[in-house]
Amino acid sequence: MRVLVVEDEHNLADAIARGLRRRGMAVDVAHDGNTGHEMAFVTRYDVIVLDRDLPGVHGDQICADLAASGALTRVLMLTASGTVADRVEGLSLGADDYLPKPFAFDELVARVQALGRRATPPAPPVLTLADLVVDPARRVASRGGIPVDLTRKEFGVLEELLKARGAVVSSEELLERVWDANTDPFTTTVRVTVMTLRKKLGDPPLIETVVGAGYRMPDPYLP
């Protein structure tokens, strides 16, 4: 899942980003409304954690512009004011959820995860292929009943390939969905991650390389 945190309180923004990354998400951070607005329309994010009172472009404007664009990105609006009137106003601007400060971090994570499930075509809560079982919510995977120990990036790549349901996913798409903006776009990290993921999943291999296009995980039981 790719998340953008737009928050002008640097310590809070960095704390949110660190916590979400520990949960396996790819997170970018913007500390003002101008940067946040630009990033929101350059990269396809699943969820934007958006402070309402931002310097530069106001959070309300970012939210309204996203809603008007028809983007699938879901918005979790943060604000120091938690009155009913403020919540109603924020939701009327196009926000999908609203969380007043201060908040419990576990609640923030749960809300981000819930919004992320709504940002893409619905996928089953547990992903399966042949004897491979992947539970994104619990961040666990097993093959033939044997647990497979995966890094956060390996798990993210596996999840994206399974959600594609046999379609080809390019290296560029995987880089965008699993890594953050600090990653060198010319890096070989996707190829290396797929290579180690293949080894960990074992035989018979489940991930195919489509030369010049990317990777896919076709159902071995289908022709």
From TrEMBL:
Gene3D superfamilies: 3.40.50.2300, 6.10.250.690, Winged helix-like DNA-binding domain superfamily/Winged helix DNA-binding domain. The keyword DNA-binding applies. This is Response regulator transcription factor. It comes from Polymorphospora lycopeni. The keyword Nucleotidyltransferase does not apply. It holds the Pfam family Trans_reg_C. Residues 2-116 form the Response regulatory domain. Residues 124-219 bind DNA. The modification 4-aspartylphosphate is found at D51. Residues 124-219 form the OmpR/PhoB-type domain. InterPro entries: CheY-like_superfamily, OmpR/PhoB-type_DNA-bd, Sig_transdc_resp-reg_receiver, WalR-like, WH-like_DNA-bd_sf. Keywords: DNA-binding, Phosphoprotein.
